[in-house]
Every structure is written in C-alpha cells, then in structure tokens.
Amino acid sequence: MLISYYLSVWLHIICAAFWIGGMMVLPLVLIPGIKNNPEKRQVMMITGMKFRFYGYIVFALLLLTGITNMYFRGIHFSWEFFTSSRYGKLVTLKVILFVIMMLAALTHDLFLGRKAADKMDEHDRIQIRRVARWTGRVLLLVSFAMVYIGVLLSRGG
Length: 157
Known about the structure:
Low-confidence stretches: none
Distance between the termini: 19 Å
Oligomer: single chain
Largest sheet: none
C-alpha cells in the first residue's frame, strides 16, 4: 500500500482518539477536578468552547480520511456496494452513525449551549443540563460503536 494510505489511516485513528479522549476527559477528569471551584461553570464553558472548535476540525478530518481510506482500499461507491456486501452495510451503518453524531453534536452545541441556558429560568436550566448530559453520553456511545465498526472494517468486515 501507499504511504499516503497509511498516513490517512494514522490521522483517522489520531482524530478518533482525540474525539473520544476529549469526551472522556470532561466528565471523568475535569468536572471532578473543579467540583468545588467557584468558577466551575465558567471553566466548563471555556473548556467546552475550546473542545468544540477542535472537535469540528476533527469531524471534518474524520470524514475526509474515512473517504480517503476507502478510496485507497479500492472501494467503488455504488448502491450495490452499500446494500449488497457485509462490508458495504457496515460502511453504511458507520455513515449513519456519523450523521447522528454530527446532529447530536450540533444540537448539543447550538441548542443546549450557554446562550440557550442563559436565557432560561433555573428550572429550565436544570432540564437543559440533564439533556446536555444525556446528549454527551449518546455521543460517546455512538463514538464507541463507530470505533468498533472501524475495527470490523479494518479486519475485513
């Protein structure tokens, strides 16, 4: 295989690790670490905004390297490929999960973000925080599923 294929796979794995690692650091390390900090909300907002910026770059790179990896493997995109072979069905599932992940991330960022929470009364803010937590959990589970599918695909489906 070409060195560019290996570089594309390497970048794909690095991006997936960044995405999942970032999602795990927030609830497992950052939140417990700032639990008693009076500036907890501000620290969370700044960290979330920073992660969002890099997260969308990573999303774009994951999409680009995913397509590039398939190209280098000699896969021809056709309706038959996506619907007939087990490999194609796994790719279809991974694409669907990617779209779900993007929609959940956009929902989390645009509708459950700071501006929306600031405009709510305290009861609504509690509800928004609860939905935001669950959205984050769904994002993490979908991400884990996508990694598992990636392993299946790399091992021949």
